Amino acid sequence: MWNRAGASGGAAAGDAGAPRPVALRAALFGAAAASAGPRAAVEAEVAARLGVTPDALARSLFADLPGEREVRAPDPIPTPAEIALQTNLALAQTVVMRASHVSLRVEGGLRPIVRLAKFRGLLCVVSAPPGGAPPRLEISGPFSLFRHTLVYGRALAELVPHLAWCARFELAAAARLRGRLAQIAIESGDPIFPARAPAPFDSRLEERFAADVARLAPDWDVLREPVPLQAGTTLIFPDFLLRHRIHPERQALVEIVGFWTPQYLTEKLARLRQAAAGAGPTAFVLCVDEELGCAAAEIPAGMPVVPFRRRVDAAAVMREVERVTAGAGRAGAAVRSSG
């Protein structure tokens, strides 16, 4: 089932530097139209001119079509046990991609999972149940969204192999399978192929935002991933904390949101305000992707939101930060004056 590159001699269409199938067809069909010779002779002449064997030419002629693409052996070739784990992982991911809701209980390695979920734009809430129970992630599944179900489903499925690196995890999902709603459970010890070991990473979007703020607002410090905040039984992992260097009482948490709905933004801001009440006077600004949610007109009125497309407008964010922290700056100045 696997065709090894070069097994029959000569280059194949999928090899680096080999002609693409569309170029092969153009050369072969053009030569055939201009020649009265037999098919084998035309194929041999075109193959020699393009540097491939006649057999490779025939196999690669329509290799850009879904049903004709060549399957290549991976390097290194997996063992039978690894193939079984990969198959199980694919089955688990397919189920998760059809979920309306996913609930995760995680012990050890929670932050990388939350970071990946936020990086992929998943709608998730992290809660800390009372009594020392493991933190829980509640994630909206693709079948609860009106748009972007395939893109969102793939993003959600990407979490599954990373769970294998947690000390313990339990995943419960309500998925639509064969026309009925099924309850699916995956937990630590289940045989699924793990992802690569987690490593610290930032999205290109967030990296550019931090660089833009540092360039545009040199009086403000940009702190990446400040400590999580407790909002009732919910844990919040802010993306950035912007803090004025001269007036440190002026500070704002900045969240970059991918997929969203008006209800999600309202609940998100409510949790942020609840966390602020227990952590001191901290303002919040949300940056929402206009292409991954509802229309900008549906953003609740009065919410400190900066819409963006492809790149967060750091200047617009700083204008909003200046506005929402202006009162803190005046209060701090009054305290210093009275002192």
Description:
The chain has helices at residues 21-33, 39-50, 54-60, 80-96, 110-119, 149-157, 159-162, 204-216, 262-279, 314-338, and strands spanning 99-107, 124-127, 136-140, 168-177, 180-187, 220-224, 229-231, 234-236, 240-244, 251-257, 283-289, 305-308. The protein is an alpha+beta fold and 339 residues long. The protein has three domains: 1-76, no CATH class; 80-187, Alpha-Beta Plaits; 204-329, 3-Layer(aba) Sandwich (Trna Endonuclease, Chain: A, domain 1), CATH 3.40.1350. The strands form two sheets. Strands 5-4-1-3-2-8-7 form a seven-stranded antiparallel beta sheet. A five-stranded mixed beta sheet has the order 6-9-10-11-12, sandwiched between helices. α9 links the parallel β10 and β11 (283-289). α1 (21-33) packs across α2 and α4 crosses α6 (149-157). It is extended, with a radius of gyration of 27 Å.
> How would a crystallographer describe the biggest sheet?
7 strands, antiparallel
* Number of distinct helices: 10
State which percent range the strand residues make up: 15-25%
Give me the Rg, rounded.
27 Å
Shape: extended
H/E series: HHHHEHEEHHEEHEEEEEHEEH
Q: What is the CATH architecture term of the largest domain?
A: 3-Layer(aba) Sandwich
> Tell me, what is the CATH class of the largest domain?
Alpha Beta
Q: Strands across the major sheet, in which order?
A: 5-4-1-3-2-8-7
Average pLDDT for all residues: 79
